[in-house]
Queue: 2 jobs
Job 1
Amino acid sequence: MGSESNLNDEAAGGGIESESFENWHTLDLLALFSRLDSGAAGLSTESAEKAAEIHGMNELEVVRPRSWYVRLLLNMTGPFQLLLLAGALLTFISYGIDSSSDIQNLVLGCALVLVVIVTAIFQSAQEGKAEDVMTELRKLAPATVWLLRGGAWKEFETRSIVPGDLLRISG
């Protein structure tokens, strides 16, 4: 309820806000143009520069991929995994103190360690696949786009797109 009135106030006041963009899809076109400091002629150069200062460049963050063993180690030392390893350690200690009893504590400790190792392997594999997907997405992105700025279609680097830009899409 409060966020709806915020959106209406921002839409009426104009300007590009870095705050919440919730429910922007429910605004009519004129309110959306007003909120983004845009219009049927696209953004002005000044509005585009202001939006770039607020929102930054339109780029996927390039992160150096981690090696598989670093991913595996990090996935084995998460909070839940450390809790399971602590439980395994306690069962091993319990078995060591009273090894004459049945083998259940030893089996439980081994099972807990195995669960940590198997989940870390799966998580590491999934992270590796996600890194590969991000690399492929970067390759698919076009280098330039056509934007309506100041009433004229101009070619810009893709990284120059800001909220409020009107893009020419062809395909």
Job 2
Amino acid sequence: MRSKNPFKRYPRTAFAVLVFLCAAGAVFLYFHKPGEISWMPPCFFYEWTGFYCIGCGTGRMCYSLLHLDIVTAARCNILALIAVPLIGYTMLRYGIKIFTGCDKLPNPWYHPGFSRVLVFLLPAFWILRNIPIEPFIWLAPISIWQNKKLYRKFCTAFLVEYVQLAKSSTV
């Protein structure tokens, strides 16, 4: 019996469709800010509980990343920003495997410690980003349209203070 999974039956076509959908989503997101699109659904977990989920801020992170604003992207969702290169590498690895038949690139997902790190990291990130005190509040997503000037001013002051502290501690 033939598999109904399109990735097994037609892997090249399925991969091409996946790449096309990712590119189309990126183009759409480049021209439309996530907070200004009325028909996009909000985070249901945040709407119901008032707490941020692991994915809150990912749309704003992608928008900022597409506009090459890495600082704001990190401020929206640092965990998703870290996952972007891993997902890109996985897609590259899968594409090379499909089109060349060569499976030479290492697979980071099958490392024994990877699942242990995820089991600890994801709940810890979820809990810590909802604690409203100073070091943890930086994990909560920001609104990149309302607080951008204030945020940049604060980041600049913070970096200047950090550099001065580092210079004074080395002297």
